[in-house]
Amino acid sequence: MADFEERRWTSRDGLRLFARDYAGSGGEARLPVICLHGLTRNSKDFEDVAPRLADGGRRVLAIDIRGRGQSDRDPVPARYQPITYARDVLALMDQLGIARAQVLGTSMGGIIAMTIFGLRPRAIAGAILNDVGPEVSPAGVARIVGYAGKGEAVESWEDAVAYVRRTNEVAFPDYGTDDWRRFAERTFREGPHAPELDYDPAIAGPLRATPPRFAGLAAWLTFRRLARRRPVLLVRGATSDIVTREIAEKMRRRCPSLGVAEIPGVGHAPMLTEPEAVEAIDKYLARVP
Known about the structure:
two-stranded antiparallel sheet; 9 helices; globular
């Protein structure tokens, strides 16, 4: 597995944020890839994906969005919003002198990618949207809201494994014991007395608020601009309850150039180590800057 360098930077509102920085292996200069995780996840989700992409020659930055992993928790939970996250990513790009990048965003990470495009279009050279789009299924959102930020008694790593299995088995029905153990190690961290979730429970608060009027229309407009002006690949779990087949088809109808890769046997969201996901991402990156 490739080594990474720890990167830390300060947000515009004073939080210390963290990213893993994987150096690309030599060869032709290519734009870097910025990996953005989902709502309750962190940069550890890319610990298999990022080294593989770096071995292909691209610098890869896997970010802990504020409130997750090694990034600071926000004392003002109302700031846990895509526009805040997007500005944090742009601050890192500015610090590192990265004018443009390919962005790989899982779930919330894909929403952040589209938000970055809305704020600074030139910063996004293309995007891989992992099981997310401008519209998401209410049933899937309700499932996530049902557990996000709601801690329960976890006294051992066995409890942590049981927790992630209970909340994610619908998406990964074929996972075995070793898979769930690794999933738990990416979801929890060692606390002073027992494993604890590796995120601020307050991140879920804004999800329960009523979305602004016309938010859905704005999301579709941003997606259409992005997908018509930049190469975009949608990676969709075949049994996803976030991006249903109907939503994926709607995305493709509105933007015929959209690439779509469906990953069999998984739901929301593919881990991107599945053979079909690896093949689709490699083909996408081979044809973009």
